[in-house]
Amino acid sequence: MLFERPDGGERAILVHLDGQDPEAREDPQEFQELTRSAGADTVAFINVSRHQPSAKFLIGSGKVEEIRDLVAAHEVELVIFNHTLTPSQERNLEREFECRVLDRTGLILDIFAQRARTHEGKLQVELAQLEHMSTRLVRGWTHLERQKGGIGLRGPGETQLETDRRLLRVRIRQIKSRLEKVRSQRELARRGRRRAEIPAVSLVGYTNAGKSTLFNALTTSDVYAADQLFATLDPTLRRLELDDIGPVILADTVGFIRHLPHKLVEAFRATLEESSNSDLLLHVIDAFEPERDAQIEQVMAVLGEIGADELPILEIYNKIDLLDGVEPQIQRNAEGKPQRVWLSARDGSGLELLGQAITELLGDDLFVGTLRLPQTLARLRAQFFDLGAVQSEEHDEQGDCVLSVRLPRIELNRLVSRAGLRPTEFLEQHTLQ
């Protein structure tokens, strides 16, 4: 395995830079959560107030000396920065601290490497890691950067560094080719679902908002759910039965985070396309989180990157069990359509309201009416019963059956077409007022 991790937690110093532009500023609490999720043992948290980052170290030389002394005193193995470091900054800091230095992108990549379970997930993580590493390859090979002449030093005309870069490019091409096959397989599966006219619903949201807990509550599944960042990495699909709608495909997807590295968005495009091809997005929001408005903005930004921000979205305010005086409820917009659902996935309160809201949004084009079917259409009558669309049945004087039905119009048109009839003519002739 190219990227191996130690078994135990590594002793780490965390460095957070404060005083930057508010748009670029990272959340120190989220940073500590990330390092906890990665399994690091935090020795010290250094908060650096600096308005103008240093080109050489990002932080000032005084702070570099302070951290270097802490590294030596506590035998620290790793220094993690809550910011993106350039390759030269990373090398300079490692030379000063004499230990490994990791930036925010590398930390998130490490968490993803731990969480990947499926072959596809591991490929996506490896691709992101290789692309991140390709800009930092000079480290460790400085003695071979230049070709040398002389006995024993004449070679094939390629330095070790160039060889490594070429091998990385080959491996990246191989992974991208495999992921392209995954994308085409997913697209085939989606086409099959579209042909069967099964709606797709995706759970999206900030990491640790409770998506997997909600997914398990709705589908009675046992998807891994934990109070940690990026507990879910691999997408999971389950079939969900809804009243009046019938079967729905529900997808649990990877959580988003502030300043999600672009390499990860690119690498996980095959997975994130599950969201961009959905009929409805359920945006799960941690109602107890003080920074929830900022998190909502970040989620919408990532949805914009994958072309999913124009899809219908239902906001799910989760974790109301942690709030005082908040009851499960549906909030509607000016047109009366569900806009938000307040619930608790952990204790199950409000789940029936969520089912009602999804049904309303997906069942916009619902046929509710009474049909008179002659005996020649007995097979069509049986299909209505098989779908559970019949609410009541009577027979008139001519022996025709009079059905009170409720089902999606798409499903009605499909059944009528299969019976060899034209849907519009059928409804004109058989619908009773």
TrEMBL record:
<comment type="function">
    <text>GTPase that associates with the 50S ribosomal subunit and may have a role during protein synthesis or ribosome biogenesis.</text>
</comment>
<dbReference type="InterPro" id="IPR027417">
    <property type="entry name" value="P-loop_NTPase"/>
</dbReference>
<keyword id="KW-0460">Magnesium</keyword>
<dbReference type="InterPro" id="IPR030394">
    <property type="entry name" value="G_HFLX_dom"/>
</dbReference>
<dbReference type="InterPro" id="IPR042108">
    <property type="entry name" value="GTPase_HflX_N_sf"/>
</dbReference>
<keyword id="KW-0547">Nucleotide-binding</keyword>
<keyword id="KW-0342">GTP-binding</keyword>
<dbReference type="InterPro" id="IPR016496">
    <property type="entry name" value="GTPase_HflX"/>
</dbReference>
<dbReference type="Pfam" id="PF13167">
    <property type="entry name" value="GTP-bdg_N"/>
</dbReference>
<dbReference type="InterPro" id="IPR025121">
    <property type="entry name" value="GTPase_HflX_N"/>
</dbReference>
<dbReference type="Pfam" id="PF01926">
    <property type="entry name" value="MMR_HSR1"/>
</dbReference>
<comment type="subunit">
    <text>Monomer. Associates with the 50S ribosomal subunit.</text>
</comment>
<dbReference type="Pfam" id="PF16360">
    <property type="entry name" value="GTP-bdg_M"/>
</dbReference>
<comment type="similarity">
    <text>Belongs to the TRAFAC class OBG-HflX-like GTPase superfamily. HflX GTPase family.</text>
</comment>
<protein>
    <recommendedName>
        <fullName>GTPase HflX</fullName>
    </recommendedName>
</protein>
<keyword id="KW-0479">Metal-binding</keyword>
<dbReference type="InterPro" id="IPR035647">
    <property type="entry name" value="EFG_III/V"/>
</dbReference>
<dbReference type="InterPro" id="IPR032305">
    <property type="entry name" value="GTP-bd_M"/>
</dbReference>
<keyword id="KW-0963">Cytoplasm</keyword>
<feature type="domain" description="Hflx-type G">
    <location>
        <begin position="199"/>
        <end position="366"/>
    </location>
</feature>
<dbReference type="InterPro" id="IPR006073">
    <property type="entry name" value="GTP-bd"/>
</dbReference>
